[in-house]
UniProtKB/TrEMBL annotation:
Keywords attached to this entry: ATP-binding, Folate biosynthesis, Ligase, Magnesium, Metal-binding, Nucleotide-binding
GO cellular component annotations of the record: cytoplasm
Functional pathway: Cofactor biosynthesis; tetrahydrofolylpolyglutamate biosynthesis; Cofactor biosynthesis; tetrahydrofolate biosynthesis; 7,8-dihydrofolate from 2-amino-4-hydroxy-6-hydroxymethyl-7,8-dihydropteridine diphosphate and 4-aminobenzoate: step 2/2
Gene Ontology molecular function: any one: ATP binding
Enzyme class: ligase
Organism expressing this protein natively: Neobacillus niacini
Enzyme Commission number, as recorded: 6.3.2.12, 6.3.2.17
Keyword Zinc: no
Mur ligase central domain segment(s): 46-274
Name the UniProt record assigns to this protein: Dihydrofolate synthase/folylpolyglutamate synthase
Subunit and interaction comment: Monomer.
Family stated for the protein in its record: Belongs to the folylpolyglutamate synthase family.
Entries under Pfam families matching the protein: Mur_ligase_C (PF02875), Mur_ligase_M (PF08245)
Cofactor(s) named in the record: Mg(2+)
């Protein structure tokens, strides 16, 4: 038995040594031992390559605005570990993490002795969330974000009332496949029998296998630009405005407070899912709740402005598709600015493509290292870059401080890359900017 939060967290993180082990057998084993808590709740399942976390928060805020208690399971965390299991946006307490770890630890030890092997860190946390929402804090609905892929992801033992697939890109190709069709097949694994599914996937190879899966499962499939459409998009100073048209209704001038055209797609998926949930006899979601929820929704680390003067932005663009969206937004919103980019990434990403895109937009670019098992080294990132104005630094914190102190008018600092890196950066910069009396 663990007696402190730090002991529990250390045990959880130590399971990173087991890496990623796709498959549902260990989760099914643990759920059987726990009396199948995953069957005792209403859920929504959200998969995709990028935009999952934003879509979770849009839908959560809509449901909250309608008066419901909403649990969420997301990864990775940005500000604190506990936020991975939250209720109405509030992370569960240290004491609850300790309690849940003491429930799952004996099962993990017992499972270790079987031919299935011990559960991974992600499997442990997923099991904790199921137990929590079924037995500790029962809520009206829980939104589950897929960790990796879909078909064999540890969250894929739920029977949701709606499923969402945000988009599909060539990420985690060593596990999910090297083509859009192969990755689409894995993502489509969350589609369940007769459960409505909403998607913003545009790639033809990916959508083909998603359609095949939906047809096989007799699941209604509603697609962006076919069954619902975004029109009249207009960038705002602190967000976006758009109109959403579907067969059922037209919602004009919807406002969101997250920046980027791609966020209008995530918001549209959340609205469509909310309208589907509204058909469930236990929920009543009106237009006012949709508008209020969308406007209120906030997700840290996604084109987040930490300071206006000097202008400092963090963005967890951790793959090729994410970088492409970031570059588009910087080109649109800050075309007259001198842009200094600081980049750190995991070494298993398509680094050459990501760095080439950043080189194209950056007036200056810094490559840094950070403390994480799969992190790429600054010197390796530096070697890939073809920028004429590049540097590499091992101490990212002091480097960021120096850049911020030197920023002048019409200059912008953008820190991007791995979400694990962004998590560390946000914690550090929030304190630095506050202590140096720089506007937040």
């Amino acid at each position: 038995m663990f007696t402190t939060y730090s002991e529990a967290l250390e045990w959880i993180h130590a399971r990173l040594r087991l890496g990623i082990k796709p498959g549902l057998s260990r989760m099914e084993w643990m759920m059987e031992k726990l009396g199948h808590p995953e069957r005792k709740m209403k859920t929504v399942h959200i998969g995709g390559t990028n935009g999952k976390g934003s879509t979770v928060t849009f839908l959560r805020n809509i449901l909250e605005a309608a008066g419901y208690s909403v649990g969420t399971f997301t990864s990775p965390y940005i500000e604190q570990f506990n936020e991975r299991i939250s209720v109405n946006g509030k992370p569960i307490s240290d004491e609850e993490i300790l309690e849940l770890t003491n429930v799952i630890r004996p099962l993990a030890d017992e499972l270790e002795e079987t031919e299935l092997g011990g559960p991974t860190e992600f499997e442990v946390i997923t099991a904790m969330s199921f137990y929590y929402f079924a037995n500790v804090n029962q809520v009206d609905i829980v939104i589950y974000e897929v960790g990796l892929g879909g078909r064999f992801d540890s969250t894929n033992i739920i029977q949701p009332i709606a499923s969402i697939i945000t988009n599909i890109g060539l990420d985690h190709t060593n596990i999910l496949g090297h083509t859009y069709g192969e990755i689409g097949f894995e993502k489509a694994g969350i589609i369940k029998d007769r459960i409505p599914t909403f998607t913003a996937v545009k790639n033809e190879d990916a959508i083909k296998v998603i359609k095949e899966r939906a047809e096989k499962k007799h699941a209604p499939l509603l697609r962006l630009n076919q069954d619902f459409t975004i029109t009249s998009h207009s960038p705002q100073a602190n967000g976006e405005m758009f109109t959403l048209i579907s067969d059922d209704q037209t919602l004009e001038q919807l406002e969101i407070s997250m920046i980027g055209q791609h966020q209008t797609e995530n918001a549209a998926l959340a609205v469509m899912a909310a309208q589907s949930i509204n058909q469930d006899g236990d929920f009543s979601i009106n237009e006012e709740s949709i508008r209020t929820g969308l406007k209120k929704a906030y997700w840290p680390g996604r084109f987040e402005i930490l300071s206006d003067r000097p202008l400092v932005i963090i963005d967890g663009a951790h793959n090729d598709e994410g970088i492409k969206v970031l570059v588009q937004e910087l080109s649109t919103r800050y075309s007259t600015y001198s842009i200094h980019i600081v980049f750190a990434a995991l070494k298993d990403k398509k680094l050459d493509q990501m760095i080439a895109q950043l080189d194209s937009i950056a007036d200056e670019i810094s490559f840094v290292s950070f403390d994480f098992p799969r992190a790429a080294q600054a010197k390796d990132l530096f070697a890939i870059s073809k920028s004429k104005n590049k540097v590499m630094e091992d101490n990212w914190d002091t480097h960021l401080s120096e850049i911020i102190n030197s920023l002048g008018y019409n200059q912008i600092l953008v820190i991007t890359g791995s979400l694990y890196f962004i998590s560390e950066v946000k914690l550090y910069l929030s304190e630095f900017l506050k202590n140096n009396r720089i506007s937040l």
